[in-house]
Amino acid sequence: MAQLRSYIVGNWKMNGSAADVTVLQAIADAAAGHDGVDVGICPPATLIAAFASAAGPVQIGAQDCHAKASGAHTGNLSAAMIKAAGATYSIIGHSERRADQGESDADVNAKAQALQAAGMGAILCVGETLDERDSGNAIPIVTAQLAASLPDSADGDWLSVAYEPVWAIGTGRVPVAGDIAAMHAALRATLVERLGEAGKGVRILYGGSVNAGNAAEILALPDVGGALVGGASLKAESFVPIIEAALR
Predict the structure, then answer these.
(1) Positions marked catalytic
(2) pTM
(3) Fold of 6-245
(4) What local confidence, expressed as pLDDT, does residue 2 receive?
């Protein structure tokens, strides 16, 4: 399989203010010097427009979108709305939304289709809880989640997958390298089974307490095409080394 271009994306979750455009600018300055890596930041929706106007080479995304184009969906934003604000893609199916908002695989699939219809990209998240990991069934659970969430029309031109071991997010715990590699290999096999040759071109990101200290080892693993970074993306001094690790 041809080497895919690395993709390093920061998910700011419910953090950030207008003043943090200076953080974005520092990240953009670093990204401009690393042409071999695609870099993205997903700020809160309130900051998408301001960040998009100051992003330089950094791709600005949203943290979620609604599956419907319009209607009586108070508090939600459609793909067209986040696109008009300046986002070019969105995270969908993040574990926190699956848990806190009860999103199903079918919901995530519909959101992916909505983003594609709007001419936008998607980062589709899948992952297992600690109980599911300890049950010994993590791989079949996560690959089934991907298969159900993945539109038949998916390809690497607009969609990436992010594997999140839910139990590792924000805890500082990281699966051993062999477990990460095994899960990414299983996800690749699922993509190829569902999408054929197009499945080989979908980047699979790792997201679970990625930081400057462990990024190089994780990003060097087979089928790890980048990282979805949480807390470490909130400051340039902790996010830029992860971008640099993707070039090694």
Answers:
(1) 94, 164
(2) 0.96
(3) TIM Barrel (3.20.20)
(4) 53
